[in-house]
Design brief:
Layout (H helix, E strand, L loop, with lengths): L1 E8 L2 E10 L4 H12 L7 E12 L1 H16 L4 E4 L3
Parallel strand pairs: 2-3, 3-4
Antiparallel strand pairs: 1-2
Helix pairs in contact: 1-2
Length: 84
């Protein structure tokens, strides 16, 4: 099972990913990515908190890359963090 929490902070946005990011769940990350890259979707850096991620296949990596490229086009950054 996969879940994603989107939190707005003063400096940017945090995406907290938990569970298995795979072909079946990648749509949730894509939807969150559309929200944070849409007009009014926030400013600053986006941090992907991967501490709760237990599995990520190639479709998950591709979704993270799509998010990176969409943010880069809007002059925003993507950082991945794993606290654990």
């Amino acid at each position: 099972m996969f879940s994603i929490e989107v939190r707005e902070e003063e400096w940017g946005t945090v995406l907290v990913l938990r569970g298995e990011l795979d072909h079946d769940s990648v749509v949730q990350l894509d939807e969150a990515g559309r929200r944070v890259t849409a007009p009014g979707g926030g400013e600053g850096t986006v941090v992907a908190d991967l501490a709760g991620l237990t599995f990520c296949d190639s479709s998950g990596v591709s979704a993270l890359l799509r998010l990176y490229r969409a943010l880069e086009a809007r002059h925003r950054g993507l950082e991945a963090r794993h606290r654990g």
